[in-house]
Design brief:
Blueprint lengths: L1 H18 L3 E5 L5 E4 L7 E4 L8 H4 L10 H37 L4 E3 L5 E3 L2 H19 L24 H4 L3
Antiparallel strand pairs: 1-2, 1-3, 4-5
Helix pairs in contact: 3-4
Length: about 170
Amino acid sequence: MSRFVLFGALLLAGALSVAQADVYRWVDEHGEPHYSDQWVPGSQVIKTSKAHPGSETMSQPRFQAVNRTPESLADEANTRAVQQDVTKTRDAQCKAAKDRYMKAIESRRVYKESKNGEREYLSDADADAYRNVARKDVQDRCGSVPSFDPNAPIPEPQPIPEPKVNPADATSR
């Protein structure tokens, strides 16, 4: 009786070890696909229980859903959100730099506002230096500078809408 139990245990252990074996697939020079539990140069892993050196699965991270904690999932979500925010911020900075550069190129005179809000027009040399700095900012933030087409139509200025005023408040009594 113990021989049957021992034989059954060995048979069961052998079956489980075969079920855990890696399966490799390769195609020979005649185009015939072959499958084996032993690695052959040029073969691909079809089913694996662990990563082996030289296989494609060694370079790829293994899926470990069991070991992932809620804290690690929250950290990954936070990292993705930060990356998205940084991307949005860079896009906004790029757009602002492009707008500033295009305005500097399209306008005849460049000015800056003083502390009291008055316009101080720059000399031609200072305006050219400002345009150079604006172009460098676009290159730094965007990687490339938009091309300027002098033949492109200039958009018409949009009228500023009048503020809405309640007539009862506007009349004096």
